[in-house]
Amino acid sequence: MRKLFLPLTKEEKLSLRAGDCVLLSGTVYTARDCAHRRIFELLDADMPLPFSLKDAYIYYAGPCPAPEGFATGSCGPTTSARMNVFAPRLLDLGLGGMIGKGEMSGEVVAALVRNHAVYFAAVGGAGALYANAVKKSTLVAFPELLSEAVYRFEVEDFPAVVAADCRGETIYKR
Amino acid sequence: MKIVETSTIGEAVRRLALKACSRLTCDCREALAAARKQEDGAARFALDTVLENEAIAQRIGMPVCQDTGMACVLIELGQEVSLSGMPLSDAVNEGVRRAYEEGNFRKSICDPLTRVNTGDNTPAYLHVELVAGDGVKITFLPKGFGSENMSRIGMLTPAEGRQGIVDFIVEAVQKAGSRPCPPVVVGVGIGGSFDSCAYLAKRALTRPIESHNGREDVASIEREALEKINALGIGAQGFGGKISALSVLAEVAPTHIAGLPVAVNIQCHCVRCERETL
Question: Are A67 and B66 a contacting pair at CB < 8 A?
Answer without folding.
Answer: no
